Structures are given as C-alpha cells and as structure tokens.
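Appendix B. Chain record.
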Amino acid sequence: MRLSLTKRGEYGIRLLLHLADQPPGHRMTASELADVCDIPAGNVPTIVNILSRAGILQCSPGRSGGCALARDAADISALEVVEALEGSLEISHCLLDSRRCHDRDPECAVHHAWSEGRAAALSALARTSLADAIKREQEIAAELSKR
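Structure tokens predicted for this chain:
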C-alpha cells in the first residue's frame, strides 16, 4: 500500500479544497483553477473530467459555466476523492507469495497486519470530509498567524 499520491491526486485534492473553500455553488473555469491552484493547465481537464464522472464536481460549459462541487463539502470524503483520482486502494497481491492471499487461498504470515493497516488508513480517509480539511486548514492558518 502506497501512502502517497500521484501528481494527479495531489492536484485534484488541491483543486477540490480550493472549491470547497468558496461560497456554495461558486463556479470556476479550468484556467482559473489552474492559475489559483498552481496546477499545470494541461492537467486540469483530465482531473475535472475524472471528478465529474465520479459525481464530485459539476461542470457546465459556456461563458457562464465552470466547475463547482456537486455536493456539500461535508458530504465528500477524502476516501471518495482519492479513489476517484488514484483508483481502488485494494491490496492487489500478497507480499510474500503471488499465489496466496486471494479470497479462496490461505493467508500469508503478514496478511492480518497488512489488512489492519489498510483498514485504518481507509477509515481515516472515509471519516475526513473536504469540509473537515478546510476547517483544519483554517485552524493551522490561525495558529501560524499567532507566531
């Protein structure tokens, strides 16, 4: 299990957190998102497309179009976002033997520990919404301003 994100994942989180920090329904174009979020402009359409298909963003074409969160930020979990951008966080193979650790085969020696670690990571991501992340970011900014 990799506990890091690809650039697409990082950029997607950055983009969503920016939109989550805007007034409800606030729309931004791909070029605005690229500029404000410091994302290479060529990456934004792919990210927006993925997040739209996942039901996380709602995008409209045209002069008054743009992208906005499809749901309230409190209803979008970090797990949903990460899985949309990075794929399923499933264990794809046994650490010790490629013939083991499938549903029908016996577990390997580290299967239980690995499964517990994965479950803890998934649980933390599932419990954390975009709104939670924005609130934490504001708390961090407030702490830094006191220094």
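Further analysis of this model is presented in Appendix C.
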